[in-house]
Amino acid sequence: MQTHVVTTPFGRRPMTLALMKGQLDTAEIKAGKSVEKWKVFRDACEARELLGVQDRALAVLDALLTFYPSNELSDEKGLVVFPSNEQLAVRAHGIAGTTLRRHLAALVEAGLIVRRDSPNGKRYARRDQSGELEQAFGFSLAPLLARAEELAHLAQLVAAERKRFRIMKEALTICRRDVRKLISAAIEEGAGGDWPAIEDHFLTLLGRIPRSPTIEDLASVVDEMELLRNEIVNLLEMQLKAEKSDTNDVHSGRHIQNSNTESIHELEPGFETTQDEPPRQKAAGLQEPAKAFPLSMVLRACPQIWDYGPGGSISSWRELMSAAVVVRSMLGISPSAYQEACDVMGPENAATAAACILERAGHINSPGGYLRDLTRKAARGEFSLGPMLMALVRANSGVDRSAS
Questions:
Q1: Rounded CA separation 345/327 (Å)
Q2: Mind listing the pLDDT tens digit for each residue in 38-92?
Q3: Which one of 6, 233, 327, 383 is at 20 to 30 Å from 188 when CA atoms are compared?
Q4: Contact indicator for 72, 34 with CB cutoff of 8 Å
């Protein structure tokens, strides 16, 4: 047992098991270990929130380190500094005495320094005949040496979290700008859509951002803002493609009427032929499939689909589409209805629709008929998965299957 490393505070200051543990930890410093004192100090400053210390307490720690004569903290050179409160106050930029004592106590409680109190509570050092430091009473900096690696790791965690926060904030800024300008452009140019409702939803999302947001606050809003942006882009894209298709149909019709007025009546409705290609059917008014929403958003909106993926998890669109085939059969959706949805919406969006139907299965009487209805509306450019996904994201905001 190493009882010689434990000292109790002078006067009315109580002894705690936490203080005892801190002193015992410093006794385990490996022989010959040393560390640059200002590097440890910078790490402690970086990790101050995790350590639970304020900036003024760190200013006091900075002052204490200036009384340590060497640039390297080392047990061989001693680790106790013994300035008076007056000297410390001067080097801590004129801090008041009561404030100084409070922050010294905070540094002790945070495990960054340890008190080495003399019999009378004074701070001083005793030297031998050669002038070498024999014994010192004051504040030991041993915890900084003992915890150097831990403090460096905490500093790295804080830096990584700060970078993640910055990236998340940048993503929100860009997405917010995109949504705002897309809505304005759609309204100014008379694009079809319930733009007042979309704008209200946009403003609601902005209102959820607190004055001092955490990364969790931003992540939640960014997900829904990106979903809203994708919905707006898909809506506008379908309209642009519909306009282009109408224009091409007009030009094509005129060309046929002018060049082959006899043969047009001989072709069956819904079929086209060329000299080198056999007749093939073309659905009237069929829109090109909209772009798929991000897989992570689909999984957040439809957590039940996870159970039907390989091994109870889904990590790719291929796995989601495979799970959707299983769900399609379980819900009683016919292969022809699902294939038609794939042809009109695209396989990714069809799988997403199946996942949404699974999520709302308790409210849908006929999943097959429901999917066919969605498919018909999508073919006419009257349906997008965005609103359904956004509603499910909000409804399932507390469900997290990603770690399963």
A1: 17
A2: 999 999 999 999 999 999 999 999 999 999 989 999 887 788 999 988 999 999 8
A3: 383
A4: yes
